[in-house]
Structure formats: C-alpha cells, structure tokens
Design brief:
This protein is mostly beta strands. A hairpin with a 2-residue loop joins strand 28 and strand 29. It folds into 2 domains: 2-13 and 24-110, Sandwich (Immunoglobulin-like), CATH 2.60.40.10; 251-710, Beta Barrel (Maltoporin, Chain A). The model is unreliable at 1-21, 111-123 and 729-759 (pLDDT under 50). The strands form 5 sheets. It has a 22-stranded antiparallel beta barrel. The chain has a 6-stranded mixed beta sheet with strand order 8-9-15-16-13-14, with no helix packed on it. Strands 3-2-5-6 form a 4-stranded antiparallel beta sheet.
Length: 759
C-alpha cells in the first residue's frame, strides 16, 4: 500500500512546466449590473473573432464580478453570457501584448430571455460529450414546485416505483448536490428533493459516463447545482404529498433559507408516513404478500455557505435521518426495523485566477435494529456502521487550451453486526486510498480530456460463529477519455471511453441470514469480488436536442442476485459474481416542438433503445449463460396552457428484459399528470399505471425447468402534491459567494444552447 500512496501523491501534485509566448496578452475587468451596480457572479466572458466566431479565450467572473482572461494579441469582439442572456461588451477590441485593463463594465440586463423562461417556450440544454447540462429555463414549467418536480421534466428521467430515479428506464441515478454525493438511502434522497424548491436550481448536469474524478461511480450522476446569487432575507418552501397505492401515505416537508451578507444558510425538516403493498406469486405455489404499514421517518437538515474573501469559501452540511418501519407478511410473520443515521460534511474552496483547490471532509454514523417475528422464535440483529472520508481536488489552467486536474482521497468504513443467537460479532473493516489525474483541452471545434485513476482497497472482516475471516487487498487502474468535434453549427460528435468499479456492500458480504420476506431468506457471501466496468460510446447530437448514441460495455465480475440450493428446502437469496456481462446498445432521443407560442406550447418526445446483452458465469456448481435482445420505447406529450396549467401524458413499453438472472416478460404502463400554479401555490395530481398493466412476470433462469414468478405492485398509484413558497420576494440581489465546488468551471462556458428552436 505504501507504493500505491506514493504514486497517488505524484499523480495529485505533479507539476507542469510551460514556456511563455512573446505575443501573450491579458485582459481584465469587472462586470456589474447597470441598474443597481451589483456584481455579475459567474458570468461567462469570451473573445470572438471579428466575424463573430468563438475562440478558446474565455473566463468566468468571481464573486466580485472580476475576470482575468489570457489570449493572443489581435482584434476581437468581447462578449458575455449571464443568466442565459448574451451581451456584447465591446463590438471591437484591439488586444495588445501585455495586460489591458478595462475597469468596471456596466451591463444592462434585458427581460427578453426571461420572458422565454417564464413562458417555458424553449428549455435550454447543452452537451459536453455524453454529459447534458440543463439550464434554469429547462425547469420553467415546474415553477412553484419542488426540485423533484423539475427533475421530472428532464427527457428520459423517471421515477420507478416510489423512490428510484432512473434514466431511460435502464440505469439507476446517483444524486449529487453542488458536486457532493448524497450518502443516504433512496427514500431519504427523494424526501430531500421534495423538500427543496425548484427556484433554487441554477442548472442540472446529467453525467451519463462519470469520469475518473467521481470515485469510480458506475451509475449515471445527476448533479444539481444551486444558484450562487440569492435574495437577502428569509424565504421558505413547504410541500405536502399524499399518495394512494392501495394504502395511504403522507409526507410533509419544510425548508427555510436565510441569506444575509456573505452567508447562505438553511434548515429543513421532513416527516413521512409511508404505506404500500406488493405481492409475489411463485410457480411453486408460494404467495408472498408484503405490506409496509407503516414506515414513519424523520429527516432534519442544516447547512451553511460562507464567503471568507475573494475566491475563498467555506461550507458545512448536517443531515439526520430516523425511521421506524414495520413489514407485515401474509404468513403472520413480521419485521420491525428502527434505524438512524447522522451525516456531516465540511468543504473549503480556494480559487485564484488560474487554479483552484477544494478540500472535503465527511463522515457518518448509523445504526439499525432489526427484530424478526418468526412465530416460535424471535431473532434480532443490530448493526453499527461508521464512515469517514477526506479528499483534495485541484485544478490548474496551464494555458488557454489546457487544464490539469488532480486529486486524492482516503476513506474508512467500519461495520459491527450482532445477532441474538450468536455469541460474537460480525465485523467489516475497509480502507480505500485513491487518486486521479486528468488533462482537458479546448479548441474552437475540438475539445476533450484524458484521465486515469488508481483505486486501492484493503478489506477484512470476521464472519463470527467460528466461520472464519475474509480479506481482500489490491488495486485497479481506471482510465477515461473523451473527444468532441463540432463539424458545423448545431452538429456535434463525441467519442467517450470510461471505466468504473462497484464494490459489494457490507450487507452482501457479511454471512448472517435475515428474513427479507415470508418466502425468501437472504444470506451473505464473503467471497464477493469487486466488479469492473469499461465502456465505449459514440454520440451524435443535432441542435443540442436530438441524439443518437451507440455504446458497448463490458463488466468483469458483475454482482448478481441468485437462488442457490439450500439444505432442507426453502428459497435463499445470495449475491454472486458472474464472469462477465456485455451489452451493445443503440439509443435514439427525438424531441419535437409541435407548437411553441406565447400562451401555448406542445412538445412531443420519443425515446427508442435497442440492446443486445450477453451474460456468463458460474453459480455454485452450475454453469450459466444467457443472451437476450431488448427494446425500450417511451413516448410523451407535454402541454403548457395559459394561466399556468401544464399537462403531461406518457406511455412506456419494455420488451422482454434480462435483469441479472431474471428473465422478465414485456411490460407497459401509462403516466399522466396535471399541474396548476396559483401565485405562490402549486398543485399537481399525477397517476402511474392507472390500468394496473405494470405487472412483472418472468422466470429465474438457472433453476431446472425454471421458477416462474409474478409480482404485482397493486397499481394504480395516485399522488397529490401541494407546494407553497413564502417569504421575502422583492429585494435587492446581494453579492453572495461564488460556488466553485465543481472544478470543471475553469474550462466550462456558462452559455447554453436552446434545445428547441424559438418560433
């Protein structure tokens, strides 16, 4: 491990020598609003040629509106972009060698584009390779609602069941806020997003192929960036959600934002009372009827962001979660789970004119108490888990073309589990030491990056009960690269290579048996290995809206759920590694603006996907292999009417799907929602699968003669959401801190392209 750490330090902090050019020129100035003289924070400043073509010479303003831009000598146009508005700062500018100071530049901000944002005529999006970046106007139809309401407007993004955010119905999404992962369960992430106002969103990044800087994350990432400028005073948002899904559920969320001087703070609270039912019927005659009745949860959040000086900021966040859940089964058995978790993070950012450094420290402490009523014998399991991580991320602009990124992190996981019928503990101890480096470049028509990450792990644990110990120590080299080319206006090609890993969770590793339902037992597998995924994708986009993608992924040692034979009969669920899982996929996204008027808009969206999947491996003593062709179709219509009415209608269809070791027959269902905004109040009524057609029928392949199953989620699912925004509304915009959590801002422009042509 010492050699790995030494190599990581070299990657993270290696220097780069460069030569100075004799025709080097520097341009500096400060952008302020012409009306109230407040600084324009994070405005994008760019030099263009005399005929209006873009150049690679660009910069972002800091929290004082100041920018410093490096270029070559010549004659240019100086332009800027702020809040989706393009401004010509200087129609003609002669840039000599040396440093040219422009002083303070008053900017008159018009209302023209804001009218587009209000009416929701042209949602904004731009592409960076396989990453989609949605601007504030993309969520205009969700005004007055929650962040979750806004995310539902992203093409191809949907909520599966009640708590899973999925992309194109294929990939589960990891949620980040301001570049930081939300380390909580899916239920708690959904509750957090329902309690945040969509008005807090500045932009959302949909990172479909996470790079080496994302700690080996396998799934696509949804990175929500909050606004860096805010109205001074107290503002609040309250959301009430009522759901009928054979049983009734309720959730109440309140969030209060306090912005004063150089600080931005918030406090939030969510109370949930959730109930639902699902039934699984097996060909063996077993009927497993599961009711969650009730699941009472509490979530408390505190956060603050402070501007300490120019390019110098400090922030902290605390989240506490508690839940008491009762699971009832048809055979008279039940589980009761009480769990709590406290998460805290502290982050500091320092940004100079050409480089930035971010330090992040985070930790969590959680516990759970599971009591299982098995009739003649009650079994209790108590878990205690601890997590800590510290990370450094560094970015340095080497020139107008090249930017270097580097980082290193160390994390520690500790788990202790106790079962009542065992005299000792089950334990897991894990160290992870990782580092990355990435070099990005940007030219007028060509841009991209190359990067690598080294991931080292040291894991050991005890199975208890005299079953022995397990351990794993090793490292893996992960690479990524992307090349983007814009041959003409409205056209872009990108080629992306990515690699990532998935480590087994401690609940899959530890060797105790717990009741997951009345029909299935769940057993650990300490021999699980880390899964590694490598992918290659070719993407073409037209008008930053329609896209065609061809991709290939190869996963080594994928982790799947299997049903091994059990002495004495019964069904057991246990995780195993296959040898590989390979997919070849074609994806087509077609948005079509049928009507785009001031009072009425109509957008149709069609998503088509076709996939070929190959899996092979060994489950216990049985060889396994499977191949399947899969098709996915989703068609949606979105309407925006006068008086702030919006309507969405959609239908989703899957052909037969191979999910891990389960072969599922075709499925289809309908989604619909209608919303009305009345000043500060917004109401939404939505329905999923009103005809109860989304029933999963299929078979478990490795079993001789197959084990058929049918899972019924007892649709329809009806939901009423009422949101209310309150507090100070008409105040002078203050100079708040600039947020630099995402170090890619050093090379990412703030301008966005329209994904539908204005009419």
């Amino acid at each position: 491990m010492r050699h790995i750490l030494l190599l990581l330090l070299v990657l993270a902090f290696g220097g780069v020598l460069r030569a100075q050019s004799p025709d080097e020129a520097w341009l500096e100035g400060t952008l302020v609003s012409k009306t109230d003289k407040t600084p324009l924070v994070n405005a994008f400043v760019v030099l263009r040629t005399a005929d209006g073509a873009d150049t690679p010479f660009s910069a972002l303003t800091d929290e004082k509106g100041y920018f410093l831009l490096k270029a070559t000598t010549g004659t240019y146009r100086l332009a800027g972009t702020f809040v989706q508005q393009t401004i010509i700062l200087r129609p003609s500018l002669e840039l000599p060698a040396g440093r040219l100071q422009l002083g303070t530049l008053p900017v008159e901000l018009t209302r023209e584009l804001e009218a587009v944002v209000v009416e929701g005529k042209t949602p904004l999006v731009r592409y960076e390779g396989s990453t989609l970046i949605f601007g504030e106007a993309a969520f205009a139809k969700a005004r007055g609602g929650s962040v979750l309401d806004g995310l539902k407007l992203i093409p191809g993004l949907q909520i599966e069941g009640a708590n899973k955010l999925k992309l194109y119905g294929i990939s589960t999404l990891a949620v980040y806020i301001d570049g930081r992962p939300q380390r909580m369960s899916q239920d708690e992430v959904i509750a957090l997003l329902q309690g945040m106002s969509v008005s807090e969103i500045a932009q959302v990044e949909l990172i479909r192929e996470p790079g080496v800087e994302y700690s080996g994350v396998t799934t696509p990432i949804l990175n929500i960036k909050r606004k860096t400028r805010a109205d001074e005073g107290v503002k609040g948002f309250t959301s009430l959600v009522g759901t009928y899904h054979q049983l009734f559920s309720e959730q109440l969320s309140t969030r209060v934002n306090l912005n004063y001087g150089r600080s931005r703070s918030y406090v939030s609270y969510t109370l949930g009372n959730k109930r639902y039912r699902e039934t699984t019927t097996l060909s063996s005659g077993v009927v497993d009827d599961l009711r969650v009745d009730p699941r009472v949860s509490h979530q408390v959040g505190l956060g603050t962001d402070l501007t300490l000086g120019k390019g110098h900021s400090l922030g902290a966040q605390f989240l506490g979660n508690y839940a008491d859940e009762r699971l009832r089964f048809s055979q008279g058995m039940s589980n009761r789970i009480k769990w709590s978790n406290l998460y805290a993070t502290l982050f500091h950012t320092f940004r100079a004119s050409r480089w930035s450094l971010q330090t992040t420290a985070e930790g969590s402490r959680g516990s759970s108490d599971l009591r299982r009523d098995q009739g003649a014998m009650d079994v209790a399991t108590k878990d205690d888990n601890r997590f800590a991580r510290i990370a450094l991320d560094f970015a340095h602009r080497l020139s107008s073309i090249f930017t270097l990124y580097a980082g290193a992190e160390v994390s520690r996981v500790a788990v202790d589990s106790r079962v009542t019928n065992r005299a000792d503990e089950l334990t897991l101890r894990e160290w992870n030491i990782e580092g990355y480096t990435k070099l990005g470049f940007r030219l007028p028509k060509v841009s991209g990056f190359v990067g690598l990450r080294i991931a080292g792990e040291d894991r050991k644990g005890s199975l208890g009960g005299g079953l022995g110990d397990f351990f794993r120590s090793g490292s893996e080299l992960l690479t990524s690269a992307s090349l983007r080319y814009a041959p003409a206006r409205d056209h872009e090609l990108s080629l992306t290579h990515s690699s990532s890993y998935t480590r087994p969770s401690y609940r899959d590793l530890l060797g105790y048996t717990s009741v997951a339902s009345a029909a299935f037992l769940r057993k650990g597998n300490s021999a699980l290995r880390t899964a590694y995924r490598r992918g290659l994708s070719l993407n073409y986009t037209y008008m930053r809206a329609a896209q065609l993608e061809l991709s290939y992924t190869d996963t080594e040692d994928p982790i799947v759920e299997a049903m091994p034979p059990m002495l004495g009969g019964g069904l057991v669920l246990r995780r195993y590694n296959l040898d590989y899982s390979r997919t070849l996929r074609a994806l087509l996204v077609l948005p079509l603006p049928l009507v785009s008027q001031k009072k009425f808009s109509w957008l149709a969206l069609t998503i088509l996907a076709a996939q070929r999947q190959w899996d092979a491996g060994r489950i216990e003593t049985n060889d396994y292999s499977a191949a399947l062709n899969t098709q996915f179709v989703q068609h949606r219509h979105s309407f925006s009417f006068p008086s702030d009415w919006t309507v969405d209608l959609g239908v989703t269809y899957y052909s037969g799907v191979l999910y891990e070791l389960y072969r599922i027959q075709r499925q289809w269902w309908i989604d619909a929602s209608v919303s009305k905004r009345m000043g500060n109040l917004r109401a939404t009524l939505s329905a999923r699968d009103p005809f109860n057609t989304n029933i999963a029928r299929g078979s478990y392949n490795p079993v001789v003669n197959g084990l058929a199953f049918e899972r019924n989620w007892h649709s329809p699912r009806l939901e009423l959401t009422i949101s209310y925004s309150w507090g100070k509304k008409s105040v002078k915009a203050q100079d708040t801190r600039a947020r630099y959590d995402d170090l890619k801002r050093l090379t990412t422009g703030a301008s966005e392209g329209m994904n539908t042509p204005a009419q």
